[in-house]
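Checked the freezer inventory, then went back to the computational side. Two predictions to log before the end of the day. The first one is the construct we discussed on Monday; recording sequence and tokens without edits.
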Amino acid sequence: MKKIYLFLLALVACTSQMNATEGALAGRFTINAEGNQVVFSLGNLQYQASTQTWQFAAKQHNLIGTANTHISDDYSGWIDLFGWGTGNHPTEHRPHSEYYGKFADWGANAILNGGNEANMWRTLTTEEWSYLFCGRTNAAKLFGMGSVNGVKGAILLPDNWSGDLFTDTENGLSDRDGWYKNLDGTNFTFHTYSAAQWEIMEANGAVFLPVTGYRIDAEVDQTEEYGNYWSATPSEENDAYLLYFDGTDVTPAEIDVRYYGEAVRLVKDVNTTTIENIQGDDLQCTKTIRDGMLVIERNGKEYTVTGTVY
């Protein structure tokens, strides 16, 4: 009976571990002086109003772009530009700041390809965005600008970067004490990757933040030039902080009006006590997806999450 009980515990633990890592990229990023780390979601956040479904973009360079003009409560397509703090009312697009007064984190929602459970993800604060770009050890060498599969954007490298496709990341960006500037305006020409090359970068933990443009009411603009990513931090009564970048500047603590539609890239806190391998009474299990079903292997046999033989 003890072994059966331990086996069931391991099944639950393996399933929980799968949910905890689903939708997360491999790289770990330090976000404060205390050494806390996060992992990034596999793509920008997207929402489908007609089904009230959240998901991450399947690829880091995927964008909705001008289709964000269709924002409404019954739109059957996807949007990826949101007013600040609209995790509980994502289709809000009235250009009046009183509708955006209280921050509701988008990560509080169940995200289809991100574990599909509530409260698994969160939005970075402006202090954390700033630490990523300016505070980490060798911070200026752990990010750069360029393009992936023809899409412009910013590239973030994990703390322990060891890949060989990324050279000197400063590339003309001068440190302006909390932000960076390139007077030549050529940021997006520094690093150019094909989709295949980016797969290698991503496997080594790199994160790509594509340009997003912005939305005001139902009008979308600058979808190929500006990157705008909300933080969880309010500024003054009508404003909030965000990460901003373009061909000239990289500003982790920019300020914008809350009703502007901006992109959201969620993170998950790294739990250093997470059990990577489940063991108990010599019990070990590994998990595999077969025909869309989670299958757990133990001692050469495969079982479903209910404990029946697969």
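The second is the one RB wanted added to the comparison set:
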Amino acid sequence: MFEELKEKTAFISDMDGVVYHGNHLLPGAAEFIRLLEERNLRYLFLTNSSERTPRELAEKLSRLGVTVAPEHFYTSALATADFLSRQKPGCSVFAVGEAGLANALYEKGISMNDVDPDYVVIGETRTYSFERLEKAVRLVLGGARLIGTNPDLTGPTENGIVPATGSLIAPIELSTGSKAYFIGKPNPFMMRRAVKRLDAMSRETIIIGDRMDTDIIAGVEAEVDTVLVLSGVTKKEEIPRFAYTPKYVMSGLAELTSALA
């Protein structure tokens, strides 16, 4: 049953709900990463969150007892910067977000501009204010194109559910009549960029995620085999509600590690 899975040489994995919940490492996560390292397999952790830089994500895993180098992380902020630099090299943006988004944009030569930017870019942030919302609306009405790092309406934290990019950008869409273009999962752009970063082909790659509506559909649309783990958002009884199915369904990374052994 798992022979085809064992032939994969590149692994793309979601983080929250797969590797950890908040500040708690999930069963099998450390063993899974150890197996990837020992077999010298290519891997990338993919997250729709745009808040943290790869270095900050590496530091978080280190605090949980797992060592992973920053180059093994790819965020929706990095994907957004990749997208904008390909669409309009040297463009300028008015960005609402945290360090992960600002750093990603700067690294691609994208400048900040709150007067006449090419794009208004919204990501997760804890500094959301009416003043910044008002400015974003004015700039979009003035011709700036509206970009969201991801379409997620909510995100999990140690203190419970909080509004995510999709919710933060909704008032701008409603006020301007403009629909945002979202870069993160399930947009296959992010998945294809991740496969390219691994220097892999789709048939060599597998994506592991806990959400049918982001991780699994992104894999399906990018023609990458999928593993749905039931350690996060999607429950087993919910799978038949979707028009697409994952290649494999497992309880979590512990079962996947056992299957690869």
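For RB: Residues 8-48+185-260 form a domain with the Rossmann fold fold (CATH 3.40.50.1000). The first helix runs from residue 3 to 6. Let me know if you want it refolded.
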